[in-house]
Design a protein that fits this description.
The chain has four helices and no strands. With about 140 residues, it is mainly alpha-helical. The chain is elongated and about 55 Å long.
Length: about 140
């Protein structure tokens, strides 16, 4: 890969990584510990924050894939960029709609304990895979 697109793609990858770590692994669990934040309020905030994150992630994945495609990337770049893109696609197309349906029900007044969902666990597992693939991608791009 040409060094300039690789450097830009690496920078974007690490910005993306920071956003995911900051929002998914810090903001999301901590907001429910703040005084006065009820489950409906926390869900409302979370929906807004994650919608913004997912829009930013979509822009970032498109930019990184475009930058990677401008060169002749090695397997050490292609594999993590593909994994990252696929994980994001699954999160947006499969898991987020399930989470939205559950939060819609809670926001409509349903008791959250009545309708447990594993979608949250799937989302966290996918976020963990995405974090690991972003680290691998960023490091591979630094070496490109």
């Amino acid at each position: 890969m040409n060094s300039t697109p690789a450097a830009v793609a690496s920078a974007l990858t690490f910005v993306w990584l920071g956003m995911v770590l900051g929002i998914s692994f810090l903001e999301a669990p901590l907001k429910f510990r703040a005084p006065g934040v009820t489950i409906p309020v926390g869900l409302g905030i979370g929906r807004i924050v994650f919608r913004a994150l997912n829009i930013a992630e979509t822009v970032l994945v498109l930019a990184v894939v475009a930058l990677v495609a401008t060169g002749t990337p090695t397997t050490s770049v292609v594999v993590p960029v593909t994994v990252t893109a696929l994980v994001l696609a699954v999160q947006l197309a499969v898991v987020r709609p399930r989470l939205n349906r559950r939060s819609d029900a809670v926001l409509a007044g349903e008791d959250p304990a009545l309708r447990r969902s594993r979608a949250h666990l799937y989302y966290v597992a996918l976020e963990t895979v995405k974090v690991l693939s972003l680290i691998a991608l960023g490091c591979a791009l630094l070496s490109a």
